[in-house]
Amino acid sequence: MQITEIYKSLQGESTYAGLPCIFVRLTGCNLRCSWCDTEYSFYGGKKMTPEQVLAEVEGLSPSNGLVEITGGEPMLQERELVPLMQQLLDLRYKVLLETSGERPLESVPAAVVKIVDVKCPGSGEAETFRLENLETLTPHDEVKFVMSERGDYEFARHFTLQHDLASRVNSVLFSPAFRKQASETRDASNCLLDPQELAEWMLEDNVPARLSLQIHKLIWDPALKGV
Ligand code: SF4
Q1: Could you tell me the CA-to-CA distances from 30 to 40, 90, 135 in Å, in that order?
Q2: Ligand 1 pocket check: which of 29, 42, 70 to mutate, most ligand atoms within 8 Å of Cβ?
Q3: Closest Cα partner for 156 from 190, 123, 181, 189?
Q4: Which residue owns the Cα nearest ligand 1 atom 3?
Q5: Containing H/E element for 196?
Q6: Which atom of ligand 1 is nearest to the CA of 32?
Q7: 204: CA distance to ligand 1 center in Å?
Q8: What's the confidence (pLDDT) of residue 182?
Q9: What order do you get walking across the sheet with 171-176 strand by strand?
Q10: Taking the alpha carbons of 57, 41, 184, 148 in that order, is the dihedral positive or negative?
Q11: Rounded Cα gap, residues 102 and 111, in angstroms
Q12: What is the pLDDT of residues 139-183, one digit of tens each?
C-alpha cells in the first residue's frame, strides 16, 4: 500500500470529533477540490504492507481504539484496504473511513463507519458523487458537505432533503471549508464560509443536519500536518 502518514491525534470532524484517534492517510486522489487541505497526500508516501500498517497502528494504540482511514482517496487502494479494514475490525478497533463518495463503496465491511463526502459546487468537483453509494449507507454512517459559499449550502440542503439523508445515516454534517493558505490564528477567520452565517441559515431553514467544525484547526495551527 502507498501510505502518506500514520499518526495519533484527535478526531476532528464528525460525531467522533474530540476522541483520540489513529489516522492512516493513504496516498493518492483522483479529485482536485479547490480547498483541499491534504494536497501533500497526492503523491509520494511510502510503500508498506498491510501487516506493517497494522503493526504501526498497534504501536500507537491498543485495540478498542479509534482508527480513521483517510487520504487522499483511500478507496483507490481498495484491493488492499478492504482486508486491512477487516483485520482492524477483527482486532476490535473502531474503524472510520473518510471517502470522497466518488468510488464504489459496496465492498466496505458493514462494521466500518463510512464518513462520505458529497462534493458541493464550490469544490470544483460537483457531480462526482456516485449516487449508487446512497444504497450502501447504514444508520451508523455519516454524510458530509464541505461548503465555501451560499450556493454550496443551497446544494447541500436540497440534496439532504431530496434523498432524505437524515433518515438514512447517523449524522449529516455541514462543514465550512478552511482556507488553503490559513493564517496561524486558530479561529473562524480561516473559514471560507463564516460558521455563524452557516449556523443562522441552518436554524432559519430547520435543516436536519449538524454544523461541524474542523476542531483540529482550532486546537492547532491550521497549517500543521500530522495533527
Ligand atoms: S477528495 Fe479529499 S483529498 Fe481529494 S482533492 Fe478533495 S479534499 Fe483533497
Answers
A1: 13, 30, 22
A2: 29
A3: 123
A4: 72
A5: helix 195-205
A6: 5
A7: 30
A8: 67
A9: 46-47, 2-10, 20-26, 66-70, 94-99, 113-117, 142-147, 171-176, 210-211
A10: negative
A11: 20
A12: 999 999 999 999 999 999 999 999 999 999 999 999 999 887 766
Q: Has residue 43 got a pLDDT over 70?
A: yes
Q: Which residues line ligand 1 (CB under 6 A)?
A: 29, 31-33, 36, 38, 71-73, 100
pLDDT at 8: 96
What are the residue ranges of helices labelled H in 43-149? 50-60, 78-90
Taking a C-beta distance cutoff of 8 angstroms, is the pair 45, 2 a contact? yes
Report field, pTM of the whole predicted structure over 0.90:
yes
What distance in angstroms lies between residue 190's CA and the mean position of ligand 1's atoms? Answer: 18
- pLDDT of 186-214, one tens digit each? 778 888 899 999 999 999 999 999 999 98
The label of the residue with cell 470532524 reads 13
